[in-house]
Specification:
The complex is a heterodimer of chains A (111) and B (258).
Chain A (H helix, E strand, L loop, with lengths): L1 H17 L4 E9 L6 H12 L8 E7 L1 E5 L5 E4 L13 E5 L3 E9 L2
Parallel strand pairs in A: 1-2
Antiparallel strand pairs in A: 1-6, 3-4, 3-5
Chain B lengths: L12 E3 L5 E3 L16 E9 L2 H16 L3 E7 L5 H12 L5 E7 L4 H7 L5 E5 L8 H11 L6 E5 L16 E7 L6 H4 L1 H6 L2 E5 L11 H11 L4 E4 L8 H13 L4
Parallel strand pairs in B: 4-7, 4-8, 5-6, 5-7, 8-9, 9-10
Antiparallel strand pairs in B: 1-2
Helix pairs in contact in B: 1-4, 2-8
Classes of the chains: A alpha+beta (111), B alpha/beta (258).
Chain lengths: 111, 258
């Protein structure tokens, strides 16, 4: 259920940033291993946006793949979970990306 | 609603203001904004969604630092023994330094009542529909508790191995508790929490003779998710491992930087 609290935070942050302007679209980066389900964000967004300057806006979610680097051999790999292991057999993979949860852009109506 | 919690839908039909709709399963490009006429401008934000929570968490952390308070955020599935562990810890270390406790639950003040009977100051937070504590709730509770300099602050989060992983409360570390009745695969199933944790407690180890739980496999699973996580094996009922855990917590108070 944390997607609801996260969506509320996002709507509040956007509303605060754009002031009175009506919002047409919000672009969000969600990493593969951010611990957030994009579909659940979409589901919550409409309800959270109601009655705010974001009402009726589109939520565009850009999913960011997770990339890791092996601490042993230095190879880089795409990760689908925290426990993905390197082809060399090493289990210690440093996560370089994939935990993003960022509002990147907002499209607002020009008055 | 939250697919992570298993309590809802993972896909749905989205209706646009202009009467069109689509199922959110596929990539699509929006050619237009919905229901608006006129021009649009792009505002670049580049802001973390949880920036507000993180700001309040930073404020909590600064307060804890200024007062030399060691704050720990205890998380686990419901019933793993968070409150029982805190009661045992309080009985062991009470009197050596000031204590303060924040209890988080959806409903009831049962846990706060249990802690209060140990003599430790406690504030209960009821999150109602909420599934985790956030930094603002903790900030309000800390204001009410007003823990003195050099205190150990124990924050018991809502019983949930999913959501609390994402919310920084300003604590020094998250302490995740896993009871041996839950199964050795839980670190792999809930990796976000075990990755976010600074220490782990394997609880109810007195039950091991009655279970098929493989401790080595569990420890190996923990290491796969978080190679440096320190694990305490504890039974509050039999007192197993309790001195080591309590000594560690006491050492955390002593080493709190000025």
């Amino acid at each position: 259920m944390h997607e609801l609290a996260i969506t509320e935070s996002m709507v509040a942050a956007v509303a605060e940033a754009v002031g009175v302007a009506r919002v047409a679209r919000v672009r969000l980066q969600v990493g593969r291993l951010a611990g957030v389900v994009p579909q659940a964000l979409q589901f919550c967004f409409e309800a959270c946006a109601r009655g705010t300057t974001l009402e009726g806006a589109a939520l565009q979610i850009d999913e960011i793949p997770a990339r890791g680097r092996c601490r042993e051999c230095g190879a880089e790999l795409t990760m689908n979970s925290f426990v993905d292991t390197c082809a060399c057999g090493c289990i210690e993979v440093e996560l370089m990306s994939g935990q993003e949860l960022r509002i990147t852009q907002v499209e607002v109506e020009v008055q | 609603m939250c697919a992570t919690c298993g309590c809802g839908t993972t896909e749905h039909v989205h209706e646009h203001g202009d009467g069109t709709g689509h199922v959110h399963e596929h990539e699509h490009e929006h050619e237009h904004a919905h229901g608006y006429e006129g021009d649009y401008r792009i505002v670049t934000l580049e802001q973390d969604v949880l920036a507000k929570n993180d700001r309040v968490a930073a404020r909590n952390r600064a307060l804890f630092g200024a007062r030399r308070i060691a704050a720990f955020n205890f998380t686990s599935a419901p019933g793993a023994g968070k409150t029982t562990l805190l009661e045992a810890l309080i009985k062991q270390v009470g009197g050596r330094f000031p204590l303060a406790v924040i209890e988080g639950d959806q409903e009831t003040a049962r846990d706060a009542d249990r802690i209060r009977s140990t003599g430790a100051p406690v504030v209960q937070i009821n999150t109602r529909t909420g599934c985790h504590l956030d930094a603002q709730m903790v900030n309000a509770a800390v204001t009410a508790l007003d823990p003195p300099r050099g205190a150990l602050l124990l924050i018991e989060n809502v019983g949930n191995l999913v959501c609390p992983a994402l919310f920084d409360l300003g604590e020094r570390a998250k302490a995740v508790i896993l009871s041996v009745t839950e199964g050795e695969d839980k670190p792999l199933k809930y990796p976000h929490m075990f990755r976010a944790a600074g220490i782990a407690i394997l609880s109810k180890v007195d039950l091991l003779p009655h279970l098929d739980f493989d401790v080595d496999e569990c420890l190996s699973n923990i290491r796969r998710v978080n190679p440096t996580l320190r694990v305490f094996q504890v039974s509050t009922k039999k007192g197993i491992g309790l001195p080591a855990f309590c000594d560690y917590m006491a050492s955390q108070v002593a080493m709190t930087p000025a």
